[in-house]
Write a structure and sequence with these properties.
about 40% strand; Signal recognition particle alu RNA binding heterodimer, srp9/1; about 25% helix; 2,3-Dihydroxybiphenyl 1,2-Dioxygenase, domain 1; alpha/beta; 2 domains; four-stranded mixed beta sheet
């Protein structure tokens, strides 16, 4: 099995695609007004409109309702990313902080309220975990 993507459902595909373009520095592939992807090494962040939900089953997903998942991106320097994105971040949850498991993490919400974590492994153990 190969982990391929995480899909976020939104009422505003363009707005969310623009946001993640700024966060990742990658251009979104916009296949239609209802679907875009930000392709990164390792996985893809897909963005689908609420109109696509009926293809999976009416009511199977709802926009701006996620409070369980965190979209995470490993970055080279989380403090530099915070400086770069400070004006883009609407709701800051946590400034860069070194977590007990050895990652330095920045937490904020995307325009639909999904929690986003940018992190950099900073301890020897955390760095070693990234190379498994």
């Amino acid at each position: 099995m190969h982990f391929a993507s995480v899909r976020l459902i939104t009422d505003q595909v363009g707005r969310l695609a623009d946001f993640y373009e700024h966060v990742t520095g990658r251009a979104a592939r916009r296949y239609s007004p209802d679907f875009a992807e930000v392709v990164l090494p390792g996985a893809t962040l897909a963005i689908g409109s609420t109109a696509t939900v009926k293809l999976f089953g009416e009511g199977s997903a709802a926009p701006a309702a996620n409070r369980t998942a965190i979209v995470e991106f490993r970055v080279d320097d989380v403090d530099a990313e915070f400086a770069r994105l400070r004006d883009l971040i609407g709701e800051l949850v946590q400034e860069p902080t070194t977590m007990p498991w050895g990652n330095r993490s920045l937490l904020f919400r995307d325009p639909d309220g999904t929690l986003v974590n940018l992190f950099t492994p900073v301890t020897a153990e955390a760095i070693a975990r990234q190379h498994r």
